[in-house]
Amino acid sequence: MPPLSLSARAIRASVFSDLAPRLQAHAARGATLFPFHIGDTWRAPPEAARLTRSVSDDPSLYRYGPLGGAPPLLSAIARSLDALGRALPDPTPANLLVAAGATHALFCAARAMLDAGDEVLVLAPYWPLSVGVLRAAGAVPVEVAVLPALAREPGFDLAGALASACTSRTRAIYLITPNNPDGFVLRADHLEAIADVARRRDLWVIADEVYADYVFEGEHRSIARLPGMADRTVTAYSLSKSHALAGLRVGYIAGPTELIAAARKVATHTVFNVPLVAQRCAERAIEEGGGFLVEAREAYREARAVTVAALSGRADFVVPDGGCYVFVDLTRAIGDGTPLGLLERCIDAGVALAPGDAFGAGYERYARLCYTAVPPGALEEGLAALVGVLDRAG
Known about the structure:
Blueprint: H1 6-10, H2 20-28, H3 53-56, H4 71-84, E1 96-99, H5 101-113, E2 119-124, H6 128-136, E3 140-145, H7 149-152, H8 158-165, E4 170-176, H9 188-201, E5 204-208, E6 233-238, H10 239-243, E7 251-254, H11 257-268, H12 276-288, H13 290-311, E8 316-317, E9 325-329, H14 331-334, H15 339-348, E10 354-355, E11 366-370, H16 376-393
Parallel strand pairs: 2-3, 2-4, 4-5, 5-6
Antiparallel strand pairs: 1-7, 6-7, 8-9, 9-11, 10-11
Helix pairs in contact: 4-12, 5-6, 5-11, 8-9, 13-16
């Protein structure tokens, strides 16, 4: 067989590949599993955004759609971003691209701004698929470990850490706020430090803000709103995270018109257009889902409190400012064993966590727990099972 591409070989197959045999054995026994390893929500989407017969019977939804997004959805997104003060100021449909989830949208942006071999500074720990997206675009992710130092060391030199990682091949900086996997929200001074490096070195910034609707401490800010950043920043959002529509695969990016026009060409040659029925649901979610966001935010805030209370004193972690995760340092529970061994014992107890090595080098003894994956009662039951494992290990 001829060789596969270098970029494909560099992409990690699955975050959970090492745990797959244990997960499969657990499922084969028919045992209960609390899926804290998956970043999803137990909540149903807004009622207005759900598939109904009136939607499915619309014949126009079975045709090809406009490239880059249906006009009603683009207009709804532009109004929402403007009202919330997110992404670039005064967005228009020309500043927006609707794609098959934020993952696809980010890939289109990466292909539009990066050439093969270009380096992208990635603030770590990071969403595992982000580095895969960059590698699929031919770029080279360069990890810059900044957490938990940013949360625990007020004097941490973020600009210095980024500048020292730059080379002649550096073309962009990738950030997430609130962060996946630890829920950390970048403060105003952090964003200004990143912006300063980007402006001085003429870099793109890829701002992943898919959890912007779920901030519990502090305030979400968009780096694209800082002086000199609107023309060098692309910002990503996801209906999967904001409105519980993961199965419909609708996400979008906002950025300067020239970048969006180039990204739209990439989208055309990958998915052509996002299914119109999914876009119709997304439009209704944005237009009529404000009450859903309020209720979900409070439900997630309570889930965070329950999770923090259960884990306090048993593991080390930074209390998340937002998002839907806790990133737990399991060093005490691992002891002389291995991270994989502890995670396998958790699965045997009915609890699945995402292994820390997927989120960057140096985080092998961590694990990510999604506290929105199951309803409140199941969350408490699953946390009790996890605490039992940690107590026995400690």
